[in-house]
Design brief:
The chain is 30% helix and 19% strand. It has 374 residues and is an alpha/beta fold. It has one domain: Alpha-Beta Complex (Spore Coat Polysaccharide Biosynthesis Protein SpsA, Chain A). Strand 1 (94-100), helix 3 (106-114) and strand 2 form a beta-alpha-beta unit. It is elongated. The chain crosses the membrane at residues 16-36. It is a single-pass type II membrane protein. Keywords: Golgi apparatus, Membrane, Signal-anchor, Transmembrane, Transmembrane helix. This is Mannan polymerase complexes MNN9 subunit.
């Protein structure tokens, strides 16, 4: 005969274990029941076109639920509403300042901060090489950006800042001025500069941009009103004259000398040299080995430097130390050729391409900006 079993005693469950189990059950039920597309669509809609440069680029995910998936956002821009006038502050026009940077100069950043154009209308774009010097420059740049954008006064903060790192090796390991300006280094160096400028331009030019100011990282002194002064000429491409301050041992005092020789008017001699060149050869300015006899804007300033700052001269070639460009010029396709374009390359090739598109460069021989003196 079977014997009856006694009462069964169950082991008491720990209350903490029950609590954790309940939380997990609630999370699993919510995860399974919630529509997959709901939260994502709301996030996409809230960020659509919020970036000052371009619409969001993350992929649109289809819903896994039975409900109908929300369509991806559509951003609309009417370029007819983007004004480009001689009074950019009055028109609240957005300015994009682009700087290829191999070295960081504190004087460059200090001068940038002194620009009187409303900073909330300025976007900064930088591109730096992926080498030791580029790493050092990036670190120094980010420190200044953090001070300005996070802890600086509201009026000093810029609309947005973009930092790019080059995806190709720089052709020169040294950025010393003597090495950069050797004639045998010019083609490779300037082709690399063209690629950097194009990468920076195509990545940052937005639908609301009115003006693009190209400003080299070693420009350490400009008038605070640089942007509105150049824009006041209402020209598609405007180049100030780039000089360099130095100590003149003969005069025993500080003096200044021309620096950028890429702002020029063409000459019959230069055209004759170009006609005899092969398809892959380039003309270079400022070298005795290749005398072009072009009229250089660097030497158009009168003795004593007291000429009219508003004087304009037509140019056939431009440099990139400081250059204000209407955004429509770039939108039309004018870029910086890294290849011989009518025997010209980089900024001079850009001027030639812009002229072919109907945009004519203008120089200001008596309006000066200053280059760092190594």
């Amino acid at each position: 005969m079977a014997r009856p079993l006694g009462p069964v005693r169950l082991k008491k469950t720990n209350p903490i274990t029950l609590l954790i189990g309940a939380i997990l059950c609630i999370f699993i039920i919510y995860f399974l029941a919630a529509p997959a597309s709901s939260d994502f669509s709301k996030a996409r809609k809230s960020t659509a076109a919020s970036h000052p440069l371009s619409p969001p680029t993350s992929p649109f995910r289809k819903s896994n639920s039975k409900g109908k998936a929300s369509p991806p956002p559509v951003s609309r821009y009417n370029l007819n509403n983007v004004t480009i006038t001689s009074d950019p502050i009055g028109g609240r026009e957005n300015v994009l300042i682009l700087t290829p940077m191999a070295r960081f100069y504190q004087e460059y950043w200090d001068n940038l901060m002194k620009l009187s154009y409303p900073h909330e209308l300025i976007t900064l774009g930088f591109i730096l090489p992926k080498n030791k010097e580029g790493n050092s420059a990036t670190t120094a740049l980010q420190e200044q950006i953090a001070k300005t954008q996070k802890s600086g006064p509201e009026k000093d903060r810029f609309k947005s800042i973009i930092i790019l790192r080059q995806d190709f090796e720089p052709p020169l390991q040294s950025q010393d001025e003597s090495e950069r300006h050797k004639m045998q280094n010019q083609r490779d160096r300037r082709a690399a500069m063209s690629k950097a400028r194009n990468s920076l331009l195509f990545t940052t030019l937005g639908p609301a941009t009115s003006w693009v100011l190209w400003l080299d990282a070693d420009i350490v002194e400009t008038p605070p009103t640089l942007i509105q002064d150049l824009a006041a000429h209402d020209k598609p491409i405007v180049a100030p004259n780039c000089y360099q301050r130095y100590y003149n041992a003969d005069k025993k005092k500080m003096d200044e000398r021309p620096y950028d020789f890429n702002n020029w008017q063409d000459s019959p001699k230069a055209q004759e040299i170009a006609a005899q060149m092969g398809p892959d050869d380039i003309l270079l300015e400022g070298y005795a080995e290749m005398a072009t006899y072009r009229a250089l804007m660097a030497y158009m300033t009168p003795e004593g430097g007291d000429g009219d700052v508003h004087q304009e001269v037509p140019l056939d070639g431009v440099g990139g130390t400081a250059l204000l460009v209407k955004a429509d010029v770039h939108r039309d396709g004018a870029m910086f050729p890294p290849f011989p374009f009518y025997h010209l390359i980089e900024t001079e090739g850009f001027a030639k391409m812009a002229k072919r598109l109907g945009w004519h460069p203008t120089g200001l021989p008596n309006y000066k900006v200053y280059h760092y003196n190594e």
